[in-house]
Design brief:
This protein has 196 residues and is α/β, with parallel strands linked by helices. The chain has a single domain, classed as Rossmann fold, CATH 3.40.50. Strand 1, helix 3 and strand 2 form a beta-alpha-beta unit.
Length: 196
Amino acid sequence: MLFLLSQNFRKKGYNLVNTLLPHLLTYPRSGSHYFDDLIYEEKKLHFNKSHYLDQLFDKNNNKNRTIITIARDPKDSISSYLALFRLHEPGNEHIISEKITEYILMYSFLYEHADYVIDFNDLVNNPKPVIEKVLNFISIEEDDYHRFNTDAVSKFKGFIPSSKPLASYNDKVLDGFNLDLCYFYYNKLLERKITV
């Protein structure tokens, strides 16, 4: 049946594969690669994932994908991003402000549009039950696995789920910045998290 629907949608100009597959949308450094490795270990497939709002809405601005996200503490997530790209040095205050604004915009969007919210701490501390819950919620049939990327090689195998071990990690870099809106949307998003 999925194949027939797919043919009909293609004739009408739709890409049904993209509308059926869940999309992992996260702010950078929120555990998406770790999540991807866990999904692959469990089901031998990869979700589409990004840090951008690409392919999530049709031309009429209607959401056309199931959105899964991982909510991570803003201080950890932003500090980790800055450390990874070595942007925490003095003189980069404007970049830090941009990253804070991006976090706020992403989390306000996710609060309104995410279908499933995963707490980063749950993912790191209890990965198996989190992955099982996500897979149960989205109910992917084995017949549909061929629609996913199933490449056996993950360049993130063994990826550290937290970036605090990075030598350049410094969560004090954000001390002079106002993170109130970051925490407001982070906490609002956590109200909708999958419980494990």
